[in-house]
Design brief:
Strand content: 5-15%
Largest sheet: 8 strands, mixed
Shape: globular
Structural class: alpha/beta
Number of helices: 23
Length: 537
């Protein structure tokens, strides 16, 4: 490719051939000059003075800004280096590029991202959170209970990784729908030339669809991926365990229900674990592994090995309501919805979320999750807390969710509309009645406060997860927050956001937010202690 592009003159087979060809080339070209040093050289496509290039450059910065929201400086510096460098001689252009590059590499955003996406991600993938002294194991046959979007996605990525999969649902037809999802994904790869028909057929052949428990025989791992209902999960897990026996690991894909409680459905709770995938499974790189109170180290190691086997990134957390990712994600959506309830303009909430570095606004992502599911999870949580003799959780967002569900009959995107309208064949847009129902002219706050409320509430909840022992490492916190819930990638993750802000400054800002917007922003004891001792996470 470099030869075709003119970046090099010849290809050599080995070192001796390289030196021989180099000497021959030097002798044949005694007055060699680089193309750009030859008088009259023209940059291919033209300089910024070229009318076609100038026309493109007039809109390029705004297109770029729309993509980065000003959070990522590198693309902007690259554009600057290209435009400025094209108007000067080559040596000066190199100096311009060097200065921009140096500014980037010594900047805080680069430090945040290199620390997380290089050092911490490598630490995780090298087994930093895996129990020591346990030999690696390979999953050969996987049973997936539930062929909905999550179950079908898990079956797909596992089959692609070479694992035999039994995809079970209440009927063979329902299971076949899940397999059809995998077939559609593979068909796209074939159409793009990324895969042959034979490879596609081989992968599909690894997925057996069934409605019978007996077909699960021989599975060394079972993943339950049914609806978020404790009784249903217990029923299907118990039935599967009776078929596969005591040696198999039983896992739940629950996003919120405590694993320790779900493990009581099977006779060997030490073989029960949480494997929380994210939707869509085929695109999302993270799996949150949840260790229940009785989950053994061997089971944890087997879960960790399976996640690496299907080429996902594993983070390990201890059992807790909502675990880590769902718990922190809930603070993001609830804060956005609470701001709407305070009368803050919906377009501002969504726009400032993106400017803060979140990929999607809290109202849009709530529609994707569905307000009905959010309400159901809250009801299940309330029921569990009552059973434990603990008070129900209160949040100003709940009244807004209940209003949209009960009075407005708007349950989210799948139900036809929630905070947004979804016209057929058109672009989604915020539901106009949000303005008439919620907007208050005197309820507006600064854009900075909107951004900080959305980021700070997630970072504070992450610290609480560390404080309670749910999170065991900073790497799991940072990678999990970015890969699992889309926390602002420029910051390097939820805990690195605090580090780069300055722990003492973060505490001061959090205390201001607590005074203005509610005690949920009150800094946890661990954070205050870190600030007092001048320590980072």
């Amino acid at each position: 490719q470099a030869l075709q592009a003119g970046l090099i003159d010849e290809l050599a087979t080995d070192r001796d051939d390289l030196l021989a060809k180099a000497r021959a080339w030097i002798q044949a070209n005694p007055a060699a000059r680089q193309p750009w040093d030859v008088r009259g050289h023209q940059i291919p496509g033209g300089t910024p003075a070229n009318p076609k290039v100038a026309q493109m450059l007039a809109i390029a910065p705004s297109i770029l800004r729309n993509k980065t929201q000003g959070c990522f400086p590198a693309p902007e510096k690259i554009l600057c280096a290209a435009v400025e460098g094209a108007q000067v001689d080559f040596d000066t252009a190199q100096l311009i590029e060097t200065r921009y590059f140096t500014e980037l590499t010594t900047g805080q955003v680069a430090k945040n991202m290199i620390g997380t996406f290089w050092f911490q991600l490598n630490e995780i993938n090298a087994g930093g959170s895996r129990p020591l002294g346990i030999a690696p194991q390979t999953t050969k046959k996987l049973g997936v209970l539930g062929a909905g979007m999550m179950g079908a996605g898990i079956a797909y990525v596992s089959a692609v990784a070479g694992i035999e999969v039994v995809l079970k649902d209440i009927s063979r037809e329902a299971a076949e729908k899940g397999k059809a999802h995998a077939a559609a994904l593979l068909e796209k790869k074939v159409a793009r030339g990324h895969m042959s028909n034979e490879q596609r057929e081989a992968i599909l052949a690894r997925i057996l669809t069934t409605a019978e428990e007996t077909d699960l025989a021989g599975c060394d791992l079972i993943i339950e991926a049914v609806f978020e209902d404790r009784e249903l999960k217990a029923k299907v897990s118990r039935a599967a365990q009776q078929v596969v026996g005591a040696d198999a690991v039983i896992a739940s894909n629950t996003s919120t229900l405590p694993i320790t409680g779900l493990a009581t459905a099977v006779p060997n709770p030490d073989k029960f674990i949480g494997l929380h995938f994210f939707s869509p499974v085929e695109k999302m790189p993270l799996v949150e592994i949840i260790k229940g109170a009785k989950t053994s180290d061997e089971t944890l190691a087997r879960g960790f090995d399976f996640v690496l086997q299907i080429k996902k990134t594993p983070i390990v957390v201890n059992d807790s309501r909502g675990f880590f990712t769902s718990r922190v994600f809930g603070t993001f959506t609830n804060e956005g919805i609470a701001m709407l309830g305070e009368g803050i303009a919906a377009p501002m909430i969504e726009a400032e979320a993106r400017k803060a570095g979140m990929p999607v606004g809290p109202l849009a992502i709530s529609d994707e999750v569905s307000l009905s599911l959010m309400s159901h999870i809250r009801q299940q949580t309330t029921k569990d807390l009552q059973a434990e003799g603990r008070p129900a959780i209160e949040h100003p967002a709940f009244a807004v969710i209940d209003l949209l569900l009960n009075e407005c009959k708007r349950a989210g995107k799948a139900a036809g509309g929630g905070f947004y309208d979804y016209p057929a064949g058109g672009q989604k847009h915020l539901w106009p009645q949000l303005h008439t129902r919620f907007y208050k002219a005197d309820g507006q706050i600064s854009p900075q406060d909107v951004r900080d409320r959305l980021l700070f509430i997630q970072a504070i909840e992450t610290v609480r997860c560390v404080e309670e022992g749910v999170l065991q490492s900073t790497a799991d916190a940072n990678i999990g927050s970015i890969f699992g819930i889309g926390f602002a990638a420029w910051s390097g993750g939820a805990l690195q956001f605090i580090n780069q802000y300055g722990v003492q400054d973060f505490v001061a800002r959090a205390q201001y937010l607590a005074e203005q917007y509610g005690e949920r922003f009150t800094p946890p004891t661990l954070l205050l202690e870190k600030a007092r001792q001048g320590q980072l996470f």
